[in-house]
Amino acid sequence: MIDPHCYLLGEQAIVFMLETDTPSTSEQRRLFTLTSKLMNIDAFFDVVPTKSSVTVYLKRPQDYQVWINQIIRLWDECELASFTPNRHRFEVTYGGQFGPDLTDLANSLSLSEHNIIELHTSVTYQVEFIGFLPGFGYLGTLPKALQVPRKSTPRTSVPKGSVAIAQELTAIYPSNSPGGWHLIGLCNTPLFDPTLKQPSLLLPGDQVQFIPAKDSVCSK
Amino acid sequence: MLKVIKQGVLCSIQDAGRHGYRHLGVGQSGALDPTALKLANLLVNNNINDPVIEITIGLAEFEFSASTNFSITGGDLRAKLNSSPLYPGWRYFAKPGDKLSFATNHSAQRAYLAIQGGFAIEELLNAKSTDIQAQFGGFSGRALIAGDELSFPCNKVALKHLGAKQPEYANEVRVLKGPHCDKLPKGAFEHFLQTEWLISEMHSRMGSRLTANQTIKHNATISSQAVHPGVVQLPPNGHPIVLLNDCQTTGGYPIIASVISADLRLFSQLGSKQKCKFSSVSVSQAHQAMNKLNSHLAQFALANNNNIEQ
C-alpha cells in the first residue's frame, strides 16, 4: 500500500486521501474508524468521508499544520476492529411503474428482469459515503453483472424513494431530484427528515440489504 | 408582515449557512455575500447572522404592513421605497403600506434586505437558510413567491439615518493553488491564471461556470472527495466551475484552485458575460485578507455601538 497523504484544500479544509480509488475492505474499515475518531474532535465543524478520503473543516484555520500531522498520526494508530456498522433491510417494489428502467436494463444486459432483482438483492451493500443530496448514500458494491454506465441523458425528475443503479453503485433517492441513474424499483422507507435530531437514516459505513416486495412486477 | 408582491427572479431567506451536516449530504446554503449579510444586520442592530432576504437580479417588490427600520446592502439593484431611490449600505424606515421595489442593474446581481429584529424563521439543522436544492429550511423550504407573508417585530421608532461603507466588489479574484494541478496538463494552473475568463450563462447559487477561447481540456480523473464553496473544479471539457454556497458536498472533478474565503463574495455580483481574472496567493495572505474583511465589520460594529450609547 502506498502511504496516504494529507493536504490543505482552501483555507479551512484538510483532506486525508488514500492513494487508491478502490480501497480494500480493511482499508475502508480503517478509514471509517478514522472518520469516527475525527467526528469526536471539537476542532472541526464538519467531517466528510468519501470512499477513499476524509475531509475535516477547521474551526481555527491557522492551526492547519498541526492537524495535518495529527491526522496522519491518528491514521497510523487506527485499530481495525473498532468499527461496528449499523444494518438496514429495505423492502423494494421492483419493476413496472416503480422501476421504469428495469425492462430496458434486462434487454441491454441480456438478463431477465427476475435475474436483475435476484442479483440486486443477493449482496450486502455498504454506505461508502453520502453526497449529491441530503441522505443520499452511495452503496457499493453492485454485482459485476449489473454494472452499467449512467444514462446518457439524465431524467429531469426522479421520484423520491427510487432505487437506482449506475456503474458499481446502487442508491435510493431520498427526495425528488434530477438524476442519471437507472431506476429499478421503489422503497418507501423515509431516508431524510431535517426536523429530526439524526436527520439521515443512513450513515457512512452502514450496511444495507434489499428485499423484494411481493408486489414487484417482473418477467421471469 | 412583509408581503411579497412580486417574487422577481429569485428571492430567498439566507443566513450565514448550515454547518455540521456535510457528512449527510447537506450543503452549506447561506448568503453568497456573507459580508453584505453581516453589514445589513449591523445596520439595524440585529445579531450579525440573522436571516435576511437575498434578492437575485431584482424585479421584486415587497409591501410593509407594519412600520420598521430596514437596511439594504450588496449590489445596487436600483431599489426604491415607494418612489424614492435607496442606496446599498444604508438603513431606512418604512411605514405600513410602503412598497419596497428592486429593479435590475447589469453590473450587479444580488442585494440583501434586513429588517430590525429579524424575520421570524424557524431554525432547521443549525441554520435558517433556505436549502433550495433539498427543499427545506428558510421560508417553507423554497424561494419566496408572490403572496408570501413574512413576520417581523414592529418598530415604531425611526432610527437615525445611517450608512456603512461596503468593501468594494471587483473581478480580480485571489486563489490558492489546487491539489490536483500535477494531474492536469503541464502549465494548467499558469494557464488558468493568465486567462481572462467570462462567466457563462450557467451560473447560479450552486456555482459559476467559466468560459474562454482557450479552455484547459484534459482527461485526468480523481477519486470523489469532499468539496465546498470556493473550490474551482476543472471538468474534462476545460471549463472551470467555481462552486458556490448551494454546491454538493462531494465531487469527482480535479480541483485546479480554491477561491480565498475573503474573495468568494465577489461571485455574488458576477453575472453572465462579465469578466474575471485570478491571481495566486499564499495561505497566510488568504488569512490576512479574511482578517482585513473581519476588521472592517468589527470597526463598523464598534462605531455603531458608540453611536447607540450617545
TrEMBL record, chain A:
It holds the Pfam family CT_C_D. Residues 4-202 form the Carboxyltransferase domain. It comes from the Bacteria. GO terms for molecular function: ATP binding; hydrolase activity. InterPro entries: CT_C_D (IPR003833), Cyclophilin-like_dom_sf (IPR029000), PxpB (IPR010016). Signal peptide: none annotated. Gene3D superfamilies: Cyclophilin-like. Keywords: ATP-binding, Hydrolase, Nucleotide-binding. The keyword Hydrolase applies. This is Carboxyltransferase domain-containing protein.
From TrEMBL, chain B:
Residues 23-296 form the Carboxyltransferase domain. This is Allophanate hydrolase. Keywords: ATP-binding, Hydrolase, Nucleotide-binding. InterPro entries: CT_A_B (IPR003778), Cyclophilin-like_dom_sf (IPR029000), PxpC (IPR052708). GO terms for molecular function: ATP binding; hydrolase activity. It comes from Pseudoalteromonas citrea. Transmembrane segments: none annotated. NCBIfam families: urea_amlyse_rel (TIGR00724).
